[in-house]
Amino acid sequence: MDAYKKAGVDIAAGNQVVTDLKKLSGNQALGSFGGLFPLDLAGYKRPVLVSGADGVGTKLLVAQKAQEHATIGIDLVAMCVNDIVAQGAQPLFFLDYLGVGHLQRAQTQAILKGIVAGCQDAQVQLVGGETAEMPDMYQAGHYDLAGFAVGIAEAQQLMQPEKMALGDILLGLPAQGLHSNGFSLVRQILFKQHHFELSAQLPHCKMDLAHELLRPTKIYVKALLPLVQQNLVSGIAHITGGGLLENVARILPTDLDAVIDCSTWTLPGIMQDLASLGQLSFTDLANTFNLGIGMVLAVHPKNLGQVKQALAERQQPVLQIGQVTTGQQKVILQEQK
Q1: What is each CA distance from 45 to 180, 230, 233, 305, 326, in whole angstroms?
Q2: How far apart are CA 165 and CA 178, in angstroms?
Q3: CB under 8 Å to 272, separation ≥6 — which residues?
Q4: Distance CA 238, CA 220 (A)
Q5: pLDDT-derived band of residue 30, with 50, 70 and 90 as boundaries?
Q6: Which residues form the PurM-like N-terminal domain (predicted)?
Q7: How far is 288 from 296, CA to CA, in rounded Å?
């Protein structure tokens, strides 16, 4: 055994990760010093590159506790590409970072399969990344993930607050569970206050906690990109940390409010159970979770029918949840009854 391996870093295992990833992704250029992406600017007048970086937060701890790593890579891709498309851009390529104390091939393969699946769903190319084996940095079986994405847009198609107008209709695209935010509170309630096992099933959930909590973040690129390219939406908010209150406010101009009627959809069962177990107020829920809405679209009334039809053609459910009114860049949530 060589000295570096004795110290805890297995170069051969790292090389095997690259080999495995080449097979999974079909990209034989992986492993180069830099990720390559041929950029075709034909048809663009004023192209703008849009970049984003994100992680999965402490949802990782749930995956590690459950020893289920197959979907956490989808979360990683989703958190990045959903931000890119919300800006009005087409995601092009993705890079990942995996930091781990000790490389375990089965665990690493499961994570990478999820990343590849997410990239395929988002129609982006995985062009590179970094796998760092760092002994003593992480507890046994633990790891950290970060993702990086780059997209492109015609300058005039970028989502800007000035595109929104008084009377715009607000549409909500349903979330797929908790997505990847609020897990520090989730873990506090379920595992520290109440000591649930991951095999437990809560009253309003159809799955045990392991499967409910690890439902992957939905990727909305295929549903939204055609709307962006046809200039059918005036604003898009990706509902992540801070919920509807913080994220919808980010797309508003200073003289408009967003009024959202939360009675137009049903609060997901997991959030109902968390509210009961953790004695959370509606404000607590709204400040932490997506409340069941993963994306909010602002649409001029004249485009409403075309937008709903386009979403239906892509099997994307949609809810009419509110309207843009005069105001001061605030989000007003009318509580569920």
Answers
A1: 36, 16, 21, 29, 34
A2: 30
A3: 204
A4: 10
A5: confident
A6: 49-153
A7: 16
Put residue 279 in one of left, alpha, beta given phi > 0 → left and psi -120 to 50 → alpha.
left
Decide: pTM greater than 0.70: yes
In 3D space, the residue among 312, 226, 212 whose CA is nearest the CA of residue 271 turns out to be 212
Task: Output b/e per residue, 173-189; b: 16+ Cβ within 10 A.
Answer: bbbbbbbbbbbebbbeb
CA atoms within 13 A on the CB side of 219: 24
- Set out the domains of the chain in order of their start, with CATH numbers: 3-157 (3.30.1330.10), 161-334 (3.90.650.10)
The 10s digit of each residue's pLDDT in 123-162 is: 999 999 999 999 999 999 999 999 999 999 999 999 999 9
23 alpha-carbon distance from chain centroid: 25
β-pairing, 235-238 vs 293-299, is: antiparallel
What distance in Å separates the CA atoms of residue 329 and residue 268, rounded to the nearest whole number? 27
What single DSSP character describes residue 235?
E
Q: pLDDT digits over 43-70, tens only?
A: 899 999 999 999 999 999 999 999 999 9
Q: What is the chain's length?
A: 337
Structure tokens at 52: 């984003």
| CB count in 10 Å sphere of residue 200 | 14
> Could you tell me if 255 and 166 are in contact, meaning their C-beta atoms sit under 8 angstroms apart?
no
Give Cβ neighbours of residue 61 (< 8 Å, ≥ 6 apart): 142, 183, 187
Lookup: tokens for 61: 């701890």
Beta-strand pair 90-100/235-238: unpaired
